[in-house]
Amino acid sequence: MESMTGPMGVPARTAPGRAPGTAPLDEEPLLRLRGISKRFGAVQALYGVDLDLPRAKVTALCGDNGAGKSVLTKTIAGIHEPDHGQISWEGRPVTIRTPNDASALGIETVYQDLALADNLDIVQNMFLGRERMSGIFLNEDSMERAAAQTLAELRVTTVRSIRQPVATLSGGQRQAVAVAKAVMWNSKLVMLDEPTAALGVAQTRMVLDLIKRLKDHGLAVMVISHNLNDVFEVADRVAVLRLGRMVAQADISTLDRESVVDYMTTGVSSRVVPGPTSQRPEA
Ligand SMILES: Nc1ncnc2c1ncn2[C@@H]1O[C@H](COP(=O)(O)OP(=O)(O)O)[C@@H](O)[C@H]1O
Ligand SMILES: [Mg+2]
Fold this sequence. Notes:
The protein has helices at about 70-75, 100-105, 120-125, 140-155, 170-185, 200-215, 230-235, 255-265, and strands at about 30-40, 45-55, 60, 85-90, 90-95, 105-110, 135, 135-140, 190-195, 220-225, 235-240, 245-250. By secondary structure, the protein is an alpha/beta fold. It has a domain at about 1-55 and about 65-105 and about 235-283: Rossmann fold (3-Layer(aba) Sandwich). The strands form three sheets. Strands 6-9-10-3-11-12 form a six-stranded mixed sheet, with helices on both faces. α5 packs parallel to α6. About 45% of the residues are buried. The structure holds adenosine-5'-diphosphate (ADP) and magnesium ion.
């Protein structure tokens, strides 16, 4: 095992400007980023960022506004190409230059604005741009069956009809459709940017349950969130960005709200979280 500076690799103290070691994982993660940097003109958005996203786990990506969460997500999604750094996928080095490259690997992203077409129904939205054809005609039956099956697998049961226009759905239902759309394409990693930001209590519950189901299906999930209630409800691991640097990456059992806030605001935390699980990695 790699040497650690604190429980599960959370450094008790980190020199300013230096990224601490990441929490060691027992197995090769699905996605591994090393030393990812990205500059936009005068703005250095990411400085040598390391990140591991394991399968069948939810990783929360936390950080204040402007920390670089969206830029990092878009780098994984093929929207931004990093200036420096390596990306490996299933243990092999890859280059992700376009969103198509990301999709081909099995990476799907649910963005904050959801990018759903209000005037189209659920099936049309889920197949937008990837319609199934039967000769020159759309294969409506096949698309309807696949959409219904995916929604059923995710136990999204509150929509009345999959032929309902998306405009008629609640915020939580829209989020569910966007997530179902993302997982329908044999995806292995789903990234969600602030999925509960616009939702009420009941809808938030539904989306958090949906995220847990994605992980139960074996997917790697990365959730960007400001909401520490959501983070502590749903995440197995937490990664914290501050001013473009990864300042902490650890098992959630080694953190508490206060230490996450410490990392987000100052980049360090001197808190050591007590508890029976904090000293050993989970099986
Ligand atoms: N396309 C872009 N061009 C220039 N600067 C950008 C661009 N995208 C993001 N930035 C800058 O990069 C930094 C990180 O932004 P972002 O990743 O959106 O933060 P957040 O953690 O809030 O999602 C900010 O300073 C932002 O202004
Ligand atoms: Mg953002």
